[in-house]
Amino acid sequence: MIEFKPIQISDADLLSRYYSQCTYRVCEYSVGVKLMWRDHWRPEYAESHGCLIVLNHSHHMGTIFDVPVPLPGEGDVDAALDDIDEWCLEHSISPAFGMVPVEERERLMARYPYTTVDNERLWQDYLYRAEDLRDFPGRHHAGQRNHIHKFRKLYPGAVYRDLTPEDAGAIQEFWRKYHSVFHKADLEAKLEECYARKLMEQVGQPWVRAGGIELDGELLAVSLAEVCGDTLVCHIEKALTQYEGVYPTMVQAFAAAHSQGLTWINREDDAGDRGLRTSKLQYLPAGMVAKVRLRARNELAYLDRIPRLLTERLTLDSLREEDIPAYARLCMDDERNKWWGYDYREDLKGELTEGWFLEVARQDFADKQAVNFAVRLDGRLIGEAVLYRFDCRGGAELGCRILPEYAGNGYGAEAFRRAADWSLYELGLYRLKAKCFHENEASRRMLSSCMRPSGEDETFLYFEKLV
Fold first, then answer.
1. β-pair partners for 455
2. Are 329 and 459 within one domain?
3. Is the per-residue pLDDT at 307 higher than 70?
4. Do 367 and 403 meet the contact criterion of CB atoms below 8 Å apart?
5. Same domain assignment for residues 308 and 283
6. Domain range holding 98?
7. Is the pLDDT confidence value at 110 over 80?
8. Long-range contacts of 403-410 (CB under 8 A, 24+ apart)
9. So what's the pLDDT on residue 184?
10. For a Cys-Cys bond, which of 82, 268, 292, 311 suits 27, CB 3.0-4.6 Å?
11. Same domain, 280 and 218
């Protein structure tokens, strides 16, 4: 299984190896965004099948992946997605992807039959033709040209130049002056300023493109960007607004210096800031880069309650309060748990009570992670059948256990077959899996009568049933 490492500043060269060739044109697929916002998103990374996989941790969205970024001619995105699916199964979560580029949306929606999609206007990037920002051509850009002419007339000594590590002192002085005229009270805007100051410390790194407008040895504006595929992604554009016309002057000069040979310039999103939106629209973007958040769901997403299933001798339905003593005895039977492959003590927090097991089962169903069927004989609970480990691609795993005093009568196989048929033909799964230990001969015989063998490893024998 893939292992993730927190993204550090020292990982910039590794990230740039992927992002410098990335064709997604989405600002989140860049070194700058990963470093600038790493305290906010807490991103981690792994390499798999020639792809970069990034895992983000959001306070309001939870665990969310970027779409894998392949190395051209080497990366296998589908294989990397397989690794993401396996990681999600082991951590009992559903795959979720943030900022999905348009060209990858169809792949994900075809891969995961049930999905929810969010497409927020606030997070769409502004995409400009590089030649438009380099030249400001035509009547529709007359306003920008007029502002630049006025700036040149007012400040004839002002020049654009690229920035180097030797400019650290001048950059710090710029931030001091910028902060003195920065009046936005919004917390995110303040965070963005703080993060931008830290990112500017990367001036001089191979992946960084940085420049500024200078007048009499002092910086009036600074920009920092990087090249991702055919796109210049601009992470920082700051200026002292008391110098009229400095912003369009900086935009044009920076584009002229760093977008040669490129097709697009991404100036990122506006995060709902009215002033930023007005400004970015005035530069006449060629389009907005739509990026969606996509969360895979499983078949339980549309199941409101656990159904009642009948066999010749048994009833399978939801667990009840009156089942607590028998259910707790089943779950705490160490001899049974040895073959079940799970010990409740691994997840127990706090004091163990009889009712804890029922609470866990109900919460798993509420979270759409599992269905715990009570197996009943003449109304009495004699065991359970559990459908769990949903892979969000039409597959899940089924297990069954019976109280020791009812073992040896075929109840397990009878309950298992009914739960399997319901899973495949009523719930709508494509593939059902099960496993047992090599040493568990009774389970092997039972599973062999219901499913076909699909493989083995040092510990388990595996079985499956397909539609």
1. 462
2. yes
3. yes
4. no
5. no
6. 5-120+293-297
7. yes
8. 403/326, 403/329, 403/330, 403/333, 404/333, 404/335, 404/336, 406/377, 406/382, 407/442
9. 66
10. 268
11. yes
Of 297, 320, 350, which marks where a domain is finished?
Answer: 297
- 350: pLDDT strictly greater than 90: no
* Whether residue 129 sits in one domain with residue 87: no
Domain count, the chain: 3
Residue with tokens 């369009």: 248
How many residues are recorded in the chain? 467
203: domain CATH number is 3.40.630.30
Please say which residue of 297, 324, 353 terminates a domain: 297
* Distance from chain centroid for Cα 64: 2
Residue 193 CA to its chain's centroid (Å): 25
What average pLDDT does this structure show over 420-438?
96
> Within this chain, do residues 411 and 318 fall inside the same structural domain, yes or no?
yes
Widest CA span in the chain: 96
Please state, in angstroms and rounded to a whole number, the distance separating the CA atoms of residues 396 and 158: 66
Residue with tokens 């389970």: 443
What CA–CA distance (Å, rounded) separates 208 from 253?
16
User: If residue 135 lies in a helix (H) or strand (E), which one and from where to where?
Assistant: helix 130-135
Q: How high does pLDDT run on average in the chain?
A: 94
Residues 271 and 373 in one domain: no
Contact assessment for residue 232 and residue 134, using Cβ atoms and an 8 Å cutoff: no
What DSSP string runs through 246-290? HHHHHHHHHHHHH-TT-SEEE----TT-HHHHHHHHHT--SEEE-
State if pTM tops 0.85. yes
Q: Which of 373, 347, 351 is nearest to 360 (CA)?
A: 347
- Taking the CA atoms of residue 291, residue 207, residue 200 and residue 143 in that order, the dihedral angle to the nearest 10 degrees is -60
